[in-house]
Automatic annotation (TrEMBL):
<dbReference type="InterPro" id="IPR043128">
    <property type="entry name" value="Rev_trsase/Diguanyl_cyclase"/>
</dbReference>
<dbReference type="Pfam" id="PF05230">
    <property type="entry name" value="MASE2"/>
</dbReference>
<feature type="transmembrane region" description="Helical">
    <location>
        <begin position="89"/>
        <end position="110"/>
    </location>
</feature>
<feature type="transmembrane region" description="Helical">
    <location>
        <begin position="47"/>
        <end position="68"/>
    </location>
</feature>
<keyword id="KW-0808">Transferase</keyword>
<feature type="transmembrane region" description="Helical">
    <location>
        <begin position="21"/>
        <end position="41"/>
    </location>
</feature>
<dbReference type="GO" id="GO:0005886">
    <property type="term" value="C:plasma membrane"/>
</dbReference>
<protein>
    <recommendedName>
        <fullName>diguanylate cyclase</fullName>
        <ecNumber>2.7.7.65</ecNumber>
    </recommendedName>
</protein>
<keyword id="KW-0548">Nucleotidyltransferase</keyword>
<feature type="domain" description="GGDEF">
    <location>
        <begin position="220"/>
        <end position="352"/>
    </location>
</feature>
<keyword id="KW-0472">Membrane</keyword>
<dbReference type="GO" id="GO:1902201">
    <property type="term" value="P:negative regulation of bacterial-type flagellum-dependent cell motility"/>
</dbReference>
<dbReference type="InterPro" id="IPR007894">
    <property type="entry name" value="MASE2"/>
</dbReference>
<keyword id="KW-1133">Transmembrane helix</keyword>
<dbReference type="GO" id="GO:0052621">
    <property type="term" value="F:diguanylate cyclase activity"/>
</dbReference>
<dbReference type="Pfam" id="PF00990">
    <property type="entry name" value="GGDEF"/>
</dbReference>
<feature type="transmembrane region" description="Helical">
    <location>
        <begin position="122"/>
        <end position="141"/>
    </location>
</feature>
Length: 352
């Protein structure tokens, strides 16, 4: 991945963050408006405060979105906006003269969403902004204190009290699901060879051990087929690496074609592949190996019409002599070595 595509990916991720916060802010401030409005109504507040409240509830979310999404660093700008949210919350708490229900509601909601976005450290920063603004505004308006909440105020708080926590929980649930999905994808990627799409060496041992365990439990046989491309270095040297890669992909495609759901095909080295065939006896396994050998011998390549490639194959079945996956592998490896020694392009079975 180039630096510029990495940068573009990061920016897209940051813009998604900005959009997510925009939705949450619109909802939170939209409903939070009513919680503060209940108190302003009882205070017979002037048009200045009402205008400010309206602007904070319904204009600020869009302004914050535009500022963050147009910024050079949308993520940083959005964190700054979140600090402004808390500062404005502090201002309303002081203006409401610490009316207990809406003030506590505002403080709790503005803290919960900050933890969700930036953790405890970010909460401390935003809580400080809230406290300082509350203190400054309270000083400015002469320290009025009226904590009693009437029924009207409580009722005005209800929509915010119900809707916003639901929205925070639903956003957290969505993120948790995304993390699970991404972990699955990462796990899948870490198991996959990018060139061929087959399982890679890393998880090959797990597959072989699982197959051995299954055979021991079910008293059935499995076959391990090791496939090595003959003179692959010469193919690379003569036709180039791209053709070499095409050969590896073709071998992988042929292996894909023979495996059943319970079998596994892996690329375990540069030009070396392994196939575990489950619940199969020697003869059918040998004929599958022979089919693979023949299919590769018959393969033709548009970009290198003269190219003929062959593979050597070693095959070993599980049986009383095979007590571990490592031993199974050694038997198949010895058979593969024999196939190479006897002139390549052939299948050799390990002695049962
Ligand atoms: N094109 C390509 N070549 C690779 C890749 N991985 C490993 N190789 C090459 O595969 C070659 C393997 O060569 P060797 O191990 O000498 O095997 P060989 O030439 O097939 O010899 P024999 O197995 O004895 O027939 C090396 O030249 C590696 O550079 C890959 O992903 N793509």
């Amino acid at each position: 991945m180039t630096d510029s595509s990495r940068e573009a990916g990061r920016t897209a991720e940051h813009l998604r963050f900005v959009r997510r916060i925009y939705a949450m802010r619109s909802l939170g401030l939209g409903f939070g408006f009513f919680a503060v409005a209940g108190v302003l109504y009882e205070q017979h507040a002037g048009w200045g405060l009402w205008t400010l409240l309206f602007a904070n509830g319904y204009l600020w979310p869009t302004l914050a979105y535009v500022l963050a999404s147009r910024s050079r660093d949308p993520e940083y700008a959005e964190y700054r906006n979140l600090v402004i949210d808390s500062a404005m919350g502090g201002m309303w708490i002081a203006v409401m003269q610490f009316n207990i229900v809406p003030s506590a509601l505002l403080a709790v909601m503005l803290s919960a969403d900050k933890i969700g976005v930036g953790g405890w450290r970010f909460l401390v920063r935003t809580a400080l902004a809230m406290l300082l603004t509350a203190a400054a505004v309270w000083t400015l308006i002469g320290f009025p204190f009226a904590p009693y909440s009437s029924m009207t105020v409580v009722l005005a708080c209800l929509p915010f009290m119900f809707v916003y926590p639901m929205a925070i929980s639903s956003a957290a649930y969505g993120l948790a699901r995304k993390v699970v999905r991404q972990n699955k994808q990462l796990d899948q990627l870490s198991r996959t060879d990018p060139l061929t799409g087959l399982q890679n060496r890393l998880h090959w041992d797990d597959s072989a051990t699982a197959a051995m365990t299954h055979c021991a439990r079910s008293a059935r046989n499995a076959s391990l087929i090791l496939i090595d491309v003959d003179h692959f270095k010469d193919i690379n040297d003569f036709h180039g690496h791209q053709i070499g890669d095409a050969v590896l992909r073709r071998v992988a495609g042929i292996l894909h074609g023979v495996v059943r759901l319970t079998d596994t095909a892996s690329r375990i080295g540069g030009d070396e592949f392994a196939l575990v065939l489950m619940n199969i006896e020697d003869e059918p396994a040998r004929s599958i190996a022979e089919r693979i050998r023949k299919a590769i011998e018959d393969a033709r390549f548009d970009d290198a019409p003269a190219l003929r490639c062959t593979v050597s194959i070693g095959l070993a079945s599980t049986g009383p002599r095979t007590v571990s996956a490592a031993m199974w592998m050694r038997h198949a490896d010895a058979a593969l070595y024999q196939a190479k020694q006897r002139g390549r392009n052939q299948v050799v079975c390990a002695d049962g």
